[in-house]
Structure formats: structure tokens, C-alpha cells
Amino acid sequence: MKKVLSAVLAATLALSLAACGGNTTGNSASSTPASPSAATTTGAGIPKEELKIGVVHLSDPAEGTGYSYTHELGIQGMMKNLNLDENQLVEKINIDDTDAAAVENAMTELLEEGCNIIFATSWGYMDTAEALAEEYPDVIFSHATGNKSNGVNFNNYFGRIYQARYLSGIAAGLKTESNKIGYVAAMGKENGEVTSGINAFAMGVASVNPDAEVYVKVTNSWFDPEGERQAADALLASGCDVLAQHVDTVGPQLAAEQAGAYAIGYNSDMALNAPNATLVSVMWDWSVYYTKAVQNVMDGTWVAGEKIENYYGDMADGLVKLSDLNEPLVAEGTAEKIEEVQAKIISGEWDVFDGKTEIMDNEGQTHVLDGVDYGTCNWYVSNVKEQA
Fold it and tell me: Model-level pTM?
């Protein structure tokens, strides 16, 4: 299945990249970008046939799993939903989000191609998108996972991924026998996106297994295949028998499988990669947002320089979800418990971070967290420990 998905995606990418002159790893642009079509300033939206979409990816989606792959599935879903031609899509792949010059060059090339809206998919693209949005007010810059926006042509999109993480914590808490669960994290406590996810996961664990603890090992990178595998190995060596992750590759899943342990995947269904380890995966359907955003541009609901809104989706609108459970691996009663809690989340009866309930951290302090404002979360809940 993985090979089929990878081949289809690689073929799709090849067609789209051929149409726009190939991909780039951040080579310098040779000229100043021209302004896109004047349709961006009419206030009536951009005609479908005149629209051009740019995307910046952290890694190569053709790898067939993980973060960039999942965003690419969303982009291709949007293209199909809106019946757009592949020559209306320009993509830049393998753009290191720690290399500011490469990020700027990639986005500048998208501007040169005449893109009306640019999707910047990684946290580290945020500051460049913000600066270019000011310089090019007739282009919409839409940034994933960040915390900045200007309300006129630069917005942020993300979602309540903590909802699915809580549910995956139920699967982990019911499965562990050592009561030590590892978590490979891209960033440390100061990053609210990662930390709120860890806390939601740990709260899900505690809801079914109050004796279990979650041990966090930080890689300090959103995409580091070697570092992710090393962190996973260290957690397994310390006695963790289930691993979760907020990193991009399948390294932790493969490490768990090799060690005879279990794991919770992220972004794509990682049971395709580690069928003997992955219990369930926390997933995104980015096509929900990409379709909405591009439709808004065509309709004139969003007009660069006039109006653009942030987006924060959830399980109810389909942006956030779980993969199917790996039934031969999960503990008895897992499906029933997850279904019970998921129904409450989707109906609005209950949520993990409701902005009212006090949560105890691991230093004895209490906090109230509104899920939309995850940036304030720089603390770990009581059953989380940091591993050096």
C-alpha cells in the first residue's frame, strides 16, 4: 500500500513540478517578482482559470509518509475538489525552515510564477511569510502551525490536534505494561503547539491509567530522521513500552517495532510503515482547510489587502482525526472507550481544553487552557517527565 501511495504521489508531483519548471531547494531568485494578476485587487475574487497556488514543503512529499506527505494529500484533495489544473499549482520541496535565505528564495520564486496564494506549511516559514506579505499586499500568504497574522493578507491555519492526541493517549494508557510511555517531541516546553499536544496525550493516558507516566525526549528539530530515531531508542532503552511522537518521520515507529514495543503515529497512518507496532495514528485532513481557503479566494470572501481570517479546525469539521485502530494490537476495550470520548468531543459536549477546567502541572501549579490559545502552554501536566 505504501509503495502504491508513494508512486501515485510521486507521479502527481512530477507532473505539477514539470508544469512549473521543476522544484527547488532554495536557489537564489534572479529578478524582482512581478505583481500577480490585477484580479487580486478587484474585490470580486479571482476567476478560477486565473488562479495560481504556491506551496512550500519542509521535506519531499514523495517519501509517502509523515508531515509533508500529509500536506500534499491535502493540496491534491483541494485540487480535485475544486477541479483545478495541475499547471495552476507550483510547489517547492525540501526547503529547510531553519535556513531563512532558502525560505525567502523559495517564496520569491513562487511570487515570480504569479501565485495569488502561497501556503507555507512549516513553523519556521512564519517570519518570512509575514515580511513578504507586507512587501506584496496583493498576494495572500497562509501559514501553518504558527501564531502570527495581519488580518489582511497573512493568516495562520492550524487545528485542535490535541483532541485526537487525547484519544490516542487512551490507546497508549490501556496498552502499556511498564507504565512508562515515551514521547519524541520536536521542540521543548517553550513551544505551545508541541507542549499542548503532549499534555492532551498525557491526560488521555491518565484518564484510563492513572499509574502511567509520559517521558518526553526533545529533538529540537521539526524534521531530523537521525535525531528522531536516536530519541526513540533512548526512550525504549529506559523502559518505555509505548512511544508517541510529534516529529515528522516514521523513525520512532520503526524503533518501537524493532524493539517489540508499540507506538502512536502522527500525520499519516503509520501502521502502513510499522504494522506490528503502531496502535493508531493522530492525523490531519488538510484538504478541509485548503479547499475552504482557495474557494474563499475565488469567491472574493478573502481578498488580499482587505480581508483574510485565521482558521482553527477540529474533529467536528474533519480537519483532525484518528486513523483506524490496529485491532490486532490494541488492548481490549480501546475502541469502545475512544468512541465514547470522541462522540462527546464532536458533539461539543466536552473538550480537552475548554478554557474553564483547572489542570495541574508537574510542579503543583494549576492552569486553565483554552485550546485556541495553545501558545500560552509552556508547562507539562502532572504525569509528564522530561528525559535528558
Answer: 0.86
